[in-house]
Amino acid sequence: MSFDYDKYIRPGKLPHIWCPGCGHGIVMKGLIRAIDTLGLEKNNTAIVSGIGCASRLPGYLDFCTLHTAHGRAAAFATGVKMAKPEMNVILVGGDGDGTAIGGNHFIHACRRNIDMTYIIMNNNIYGMTGGQFSPCTPTGAKASTTVYGNPDPAFDVAKLAIGAGATFVARGTAYHATQIDKLIVEAVQHKGFSVVEILDDCPTTYGRRNKFKSVIEMMNRLKDVAVPVKAAEKMTAEQLEGKILTGVLYKEERPNYTDEYAKVIERAKK
Amino acid sequence: MAKKVAFLQGNEAAAQGALYAGCTFFGGYPITPSTEVAEVLSIELPKIGGKFIQMEDEIGAMASVIGASLTGAKVLTATSGPGLSLKQELIGYACIAETPVVIVNVMRGGPSTGMPTGPSQSDVMCAKWGTHGDHPAICLVPASVQELFEETVRAFNLAEKYRTPVMVMPDEIVAHMRERIVFPEPGEMEVINRTAPSVSPAEYKPYDTKFGDVPPLAAFGSDYRFHVTGLNKAEDGFPTTKAALVQAEEERQVRKVEANVDDIVTFEEYELADAEVVVVAYGSTSRSARFAVNEARKQGIKAGLFRIKTFWPFPDKQIAAIAGKAKAIITPEMNLGMCTQEVQRCAQGKASVSGIFRVDGEPINPGQILEKIKEVK
Ligand SMILES: Cc1ncc(C[n+]2csc(CCOP(=O)(O)OP(=O)(O)O)c2C)c(N)n1
């Protein structure tokens, strides 16, 4: 029997705002399947986002949903999780939202190792505002504000997360749709701050400008650049040139923030 | 039984007031001269199972308190000038999402980094106009340590009652002075909790106008699920761009405060019955003003004091009435005329309005006010 997504979609809230060919919907379906696998209780799960196309995702889902301000999802979610540690908190958003305006909150959520999962949909561009470059736009690429080619170096979201102290970091792509839910399941099960970067596509504002002839071509690029970490172990540096590792990139056990704060409460009460 | 008495600093009293009101969550970022509020709560909150978090900046602090408030907690953040500027976008978010939060903003010199330990009263316009868009504004300006305690309790009550951010804005002098404070017994001061939904989860809408201008607010993690956004929204909380709906919602959000000014606006009248010269003052400045009024009376001048306790909504009606009776109004303030403008607006030319303005980090002393009283009488 096919999977029943409707169980988790809010009645009357579709159609979504995403353009044809956008990968955000694939991520949403992956998230739904993950939540179903995990058996997360709707009332006890908060889905928090910032602003951007990707950040519209929570509105479609039947949970406690919080669509915040641009870049601030991690900080709002920190308040939710601190105040009610028993809640499952999942963040979703774009690369611009998470690593530009939200960069500070992002790295500090990683550092605190607060037990939440952050899904970053990296389409290499600011979609909602019409295709300006983001910190994840590749150097040399075209955006509406880099028509001569992007001079900025790009962030590697996963490395950024690892460097900042996230204790679970994974990467998938919108092409590898069935892998998305598996990564999210593992991320949510991980006790601590987990980051799942999904390489995504924006045919409307990135694809057209950067000479991708079709959505299929964009999807094929995701297929071609992705190399599972296991497979990469057997590859040479030359073979790995221009490739992007996917799968679980980092995993570490470290005390998480709300557990540590519970100890603070214990000490204070003595 | 004798009441508990203490010798406290203003900021410490604000923290104690928050606890009295039932605050269980503080998110903040340190900035002088507000830091003691955070320091006290970092000690006291965990003792009662509450949460204290020092965020990475003021924007994060503001975001964290809104997030926590949505889980049903009573929340506080404390800051000062530059921090208030950073919080502004999210103060607007709390307005449109109708989330109760209390912000203690200790006014220091500005703009920008200004004078970190110099007193000022120059954030009063920021409290009303700082965030973009039309929105309600409630701002309380206590003048003593006792009042900073009581007004913080009242700020929580107003925030919960009207589902909106409320600011408590002591100037640095009030926040840092030490005074005797008498703690109210539990139950002695009113403590208001937000109205919980009376409908079933299936019927619940977070902005359901059927329940009046301030709809009941459920909590994340309870039996109720709902959507919260900073976009213009319909009564179910989901974004809308329908013109009539947006207009009606915006008007309701402002109306819930404007239509209740008599419940919100507080003030103190001193020697006003026959006053020909009225000093309109707030915060620490009002204490100098009272002294000056007493001196003037001794010298046979009919002077009086109108002390503003609630800056927003502004006491329009009361100031207009004073202007209709008195000959002259004097507005001493530690800025270059912010309150004065408001008083002029209310006075509509019926009385002369003149200010005493200081932005040099020095308090306005009674002598200065007395001199002005003599000049305009
Ligand atoms: C304070 C603030 N600055 C700028 C914006 C405008 N803005 C809205 S969405 C967006 C970029 C979104 O890009 P991204 O996060 O990558 O998500 P996408 O739309 O590509 O899914 C920007 C700059 C805003 N809403 N708020």
UniProtKB/TrEMBL annotation, chain A:
| Record SUPFAM superfamilies | Thiamin diphosphate-binding fold (THDP-binding)
Instruction: Please tell me whether the keyword Oxidoreductase is annotated for this protein.
Output: yes
Q: Which InterPro entries does UniProt cross-reference here?
A: 2-oxoacid:Fd_oxidoreductase (IPR051457), THDP-binding (IPR029061), TPP_enzyme_TPP-bd (IPR011766)
Q: Which GO terms describe its biological process?
A: cellular respiration; small molecule metabolic process
The molecular function terms of the Gene Ontology recorded here are:
oxidoreductase activity, acting on the aldehyde or oxo group of donors, iron-sulfur protein as acceptor; thiamine pyrophosphate binding
Please report a single Pfam family linked to this protein: TPP_enzyme_C
Q: What positions does the domain Thiamine pyrophosphate enzyme TPP-binding occupy?
A: 51-198
In terms of PANTHER family, this protein maps to: 2-OXOGLUTARATE OXIDOREDUCTASE SUBUNIT KORB-RELATED, 2-OXOGLUTARATE SYNTHASE SUBUNIT KORB
Q: Quote the protein name from its UniProt record.
A: 2-oxoglutarate:ferredoxin oxidoreductase, thiamin diphosphate-binding subunit
User: Which organism does this record belong to?
Assistant: Citrifermentans bemidjiense (strain ATCC BAA-1014 / DSM 16622 / JCM 12645 / Bem) (Geobacter bemidjiensis)
> What is the gene name?
korB
From TrEMBL, chain B:
Gene Ontology MF annotations: oxidoreductase activity
Q: Which parts of the sequence belong to the Pyruvate flavodoxin/ferredoxin oxidoreductase pyrimidine binding domain? A: 17-249
Tell me the domain of life.
Bacteria
Keyword annotations for this protein, in alphabetical order, are:
Oxidoreductase
What Pfam families is this protein classified in?
PFOR_II, POR_N
UniProt-listed InterPro entries? 2-oxoacid_oxidoreductase, PFOR_II, Pyrv_Fd/Flavodoxin_OxRdtase_N, THDP-binding, Transketo_C/PFOR_II
Q: Report the leader peptide range.
A: none
All copies of the Pyruvate:ferredoxin oxidoreductase core domain together span: 275-368
Q: NCBIfam families of this UniProt entry?
A: PRK08659.1 (NF006412)
What protein name is recorded for this chain? 2-oxoglutarate:ferredoxin oxidoreductase, alpha subunit
Q: Which organism is it from?
A: Citrifermentans bemidjiense (strain ATCC BAA-1014 / DSM 16622 / JCM 12645 / Bem) (Geobacter bemidjiensis)
Gene behind this chain?
A: korA
